[in-house]
Each structure stands twice: as C-alpha cells, then as structure tokens.
C-alpha cells in the first residue's frame, strides 16, 4: 500500500482509500500495475516494421497499426506531425502544471502545524518538481528542448492547469488540495499510463504511484481536522467548499466544447473523455466525503439509479475559460513568482553547465 502513514480506519478503507476499494487509490494502483505490465508486453511484441525505405503511406499505415494493436510509439518511430505537436502541447502543459503547482502548497511549508506535517509537505512539493522533470524529459524525446518549453511558460504562451490559480488560505487547503486536486489528478492520469506514446506512459506510471501517496496525505489531514474541534472541522469544510468546483473544472471543458478530445482519443493519447473522467471523480469522492463527515457543496448531488452514477452540478465553465486566459485569482502572482524563481536560479544553471563542461572536457596529461 503506497503512502499509508497512518492506520486506515475500516470505514475509510470501505470508502475507497483502502486496499482494492473501487475508485480508491489502491484500486487505481492496480490499474497502474496492469498498465505497467501491458507496457512491457507491448515492448516485447512489435508490429512488423516497414523498414527504412518505406514511403509516407506505408509509414502512416505502420503508425496506425501500432496504435490499433495497443503497442507504443517510441521516439525513433515515424509519427504524424500533428501527433507529435499534440503530445508536446499536452506534456508541456502537464509539466508546467507540476512546476506551478508547487506554489500553492509551498506557501504552507513554513507554517505547517508540526515538524512531521512539515516534512511530509516538503517531500510532497519536492515530488511535484520531480514530476515536472520526468515530463520535460518525456517532451524532449519529441525533439523540443526543456529550455524552450520553460521560455514558452514564462512568456505566457503555454498553459498550465487552471487549478493552481486559486489561493491556499488556511492549512486545511493543503488537505483539500491533496484529497481533491491530487485525487482529480490521479483519476485523470491513471488512463495516461496507457497512452500510446511510450515515454509519456512510462513517466505517468511513476507519477501515479507518487500521486497516490499525495492523495492519502491530503485525506489524512482533512480526516484529522474533521474529527478535531468544531473550529477545525469548519475550516476543513470551508476548504472543501472552495476547492470542489475548481477541482471538477480541472478535467477541462465539457466534451461538446473539447477541441482535442476526439483526435486525442483516436490516437489513444487520452483514453476517456473529460466528462467521463469528471463523473468517475465525483462518484469516487461522494463516499469518501461521507467518511470524512464533510459535505460536498452541491445541493443537487444525488445517486441516479438509472445511470448508476451521481447527478451533480457542473462547474462554471465560463470561470474556467477566464482562469485559463489569465484572469484567475492568482494568475499574476503565480507568473511573477515563477519569473523570480527562474531569475534566482540562473547562477545554479550556469554553475551546473560549467561543471558539466569541465567534466566533459578532454583530460590533458600532466607534463612528465
Ligand atoms: N486548465 O480540448 P481540451 C497536478 C485547455 S498537475 C488549463 O479538452 P485536452 C498537480 C486545453 O489545454 C495536473 N487549461 O484539451 C501538480 C486546451 O487548450 P489548448 C495537470 C485547460 O488536452 C502539482 C483547451 O483548454 N494535469 O495534478 O484534450 C501539485 C481545450 O481543452 C484545462 C494534466 O496536465 C485546465 N483545467 O484535455 C498537485 C494532465 N482544461 O492546448 C497536483 C494531462 C482544458 O488548445 N492533460 N484546458 O490551448 C490532460 O489530460 C488534458 O490535457 C486535459 C485537457 C484533460 C487537461
């Protein structure tokens, strides 16, 4: 079991965070493990290569056959330019999200309520930096440099997830981010472990294993607060009230307005639509919230027997678009902080480059 630093009460296990419970991280980790096995098997069984002399049509047929057979496209393989550019777009946005995503929680490292909480949060935020690095590395296999992607982020020409443009006002927000934001991230990212592009799929397997720990730490913070004083419980509820709809919006616009979903699903980059994943997330959270003793702030949330899923209120997609375009509560603050951190880190990049150059320089033999 990943990231379990406290004894999971029986009712929590039953609510989806315990081993194998449907929709919970352990269950999702089973999906990650299955994706990892499938990835190895796909590597061992390649569709017959058309050879170096193949022309455009043959190459496209080969590409389509690899996707059809659920095998992986690797950096050495020919791929349509739109597939390459689409992947660069998504992987870069994903990497930027991990890096910008360090800010809201980083805000609480120096104010965590105990040394243990501080150590856990520090490790978690550090993990997010690691995820960013795996993803930039995956993007680099498509022929774009990490420096170029970082420049595009700094210039505001590439996006990052809308969710990180909301403020963390109290310690309970750290719990709500772990439970809801990392929970949404897991639901969205587990299917990406089966993405048709090998380097992205491999990065996602490692990321999902770590995200499962992140969700648990958030859930445990909220569980503790919700079972503490009335003031602590109110603080936890307030955080859930503020993070619920932005978390639903993380899955993107509704399917009818999603520009990339159809092509992305044909190419098996995305495996499920935005709305399908959003529904899966809602269904997962309902039972977990009841164990926490916290309410999901949606008066219209109810089980629909016919659909075998919960009906729920959609997030405000006009707000999502506004936040994506740069007008969320914290967009300017996040961009300013990233610019400052990038400038502050210039000497580290220079020192690392100088050290690498020195190590790579041909050694000159000392004169006899
Ligand atoms: N925020 O056609 P659509 C984390 C954009 S990191 C901003 O449906 P697609 C974590 C979309 O990019 C979580 N932009 O797009 C880190 C597109 O714009 P462009 C990040 C959004 O790609 C630290 C346009 O709207 N996760 O969990 O098919 C600490 C139309 O959308 C958003 C990932 O990046 C949004 N919420 O589907 C804690 C996962 N939604 O590019 C936690 C990988 C949509 O045409 N990415 N847009 O200018 C994906 O799965 C997909 O890219 C999305 C969107 C589901 C996000």
TrEMBL record:
One of its GO terms (biological process) is phenylacetate catabolic process. GO terms for molecular function: phenylacetyl-CoA 1,2-epoxidase activity. GO terms for cellular component: cytosol. Gene3D superfamilies: 1.20.1260.10. InterPro entries: Aromatic_CoA_ox/epox, Ferritin-like, Ferritin-like_SF, PaaA, PaaA_PaaC. PANTHER family: 1,2-PHENYLACETYL-COA EPOXIDASE, SUBUNIT A (PTHR30458:SF2), PHENYLACETIC ACID DEGRADATION PROTEIN PAA (PTHR30458). This is Phenylacetate-CoA oxygenase subunit PaaA. It comes from Rugosimonospora africana. The gene is paaA.
